[in-house]
Amino acid sequence: MNLFRKKTIASLIAQSETKGASLKKELGAFDLTMLGIGAIVGTGVFVLTGVAAADHAGPALVLSFMMAGLVCAFAALCYAEFASTVPVSGSVYTYSYATFGELFAWILGWDLLLEYGIASSAVASGWSGYFQGLLSGFGIHLPTALSGAYSPDKGTFVDLPSVLIVLVITLLLTRGAKKSARFNTILVIIKIVVILLFIGVGVWYVKPENWSPFMPFGFSGITSGAATVFFAFIGFDAVSTAAEEVKNPKRNMPIGIIASLAVCTVLYIIVSLILTGIVPYGQLGVSNPVAFALQFIEQDWVAGFISLGAIAGITTVLLVLLYGQTRLFYAISRDGFLPKALSSVHPKTKTPVFNTWLTGGMVAFLAGVLPLNVLAQLTNMGTLFAFAVVSVGIIVLRKSEPDLQRSFKVPLVPWIPLLSVLFCGFLIMQLPLSTWIAFGVWLVIGLAIYFGYGYRNSALVKAVAPMRQPDGSAG
Question: Which of 239, 252, 352, 460 is exposed most, by the fewest CB atoms within 10 A?
Answer without folding.
Answer: 460
